[in-house]
Amino acid sequence: MPTLSDISTRLAGLVDTLGSDQFLNQLVDTLCWQTQADDATIIIYEQGELPGIAYAKPLEGAAETALNTYLTGPFLLDPFYRAAQHDNQFGVFRFVDLAPSGFRASEYYKTWYKSCGYQDECGLLIDLGERSFINISMGLLAPQARFSRKQARDLQDLFPVIDAMCKKHWGGQLKSDDTISMRDRLHSSLGAFGSSVLTKRERQVIELVLLGHNTRLIAEKLGISIETVKLHRKHAYAKLDINSQAELFYLFMEALAHSSGDASVDPLIAYQGVG
Question: Which overall architecture, per CATH, does domain 4-170 show?
């Protein structure tokens, strides 16, 4: 277990690298050392634009493909992203703290987590101001590995210092921009997905399915019965000409790739026009 002296020494070394190219490497090394995490990636969501990778270990194959795909649209379904973007939650969170019940059975989870190899995730969500934030995402790779409450508490103790350092490191690099951004357009596309063929209730059910909610949780959120949820999902799948959650996920990703970002236009229209 790290002693206070060990932690102080690590943080002092981290302070020395502030503003330099070495800061992110030192930051990741310190956090992985503290939590015994196997891997870490720092994703920056800047001024409403598409996310970018501030730090990541070299990737190849399926992991590289999955990360590049994530950055183009599927990040909209990420529980960590949604916590910061939609709920204004910042701090230390474990995967289990944010993911809805049944999320591990979702196609997003199967696609993203299987490809990157993470068995569990713990993230530090830091608000940088100017509509920008970062997620320092730490992962465990061993089968069935999970971040404990104690590990999260230890990180929470460090969070005020890490938060201040990150704000200092990125301070002055971010510029205010009130124009409609690419990320704003993707949010509009998520809301409009299926609007040309689905009823309002069917769209609500489909969006919650995409976000990883199971049938029971969807019923609770919408105030309807489980059987009604199943019926809406069945009708929506038929109208979209799909048969599974996997097909829904990939249809959504393909539609996003052809989206105009107009909240009044279903991205499926452009996608089907190309097809």
Answer: 2-Layer Sandwich (3.30)
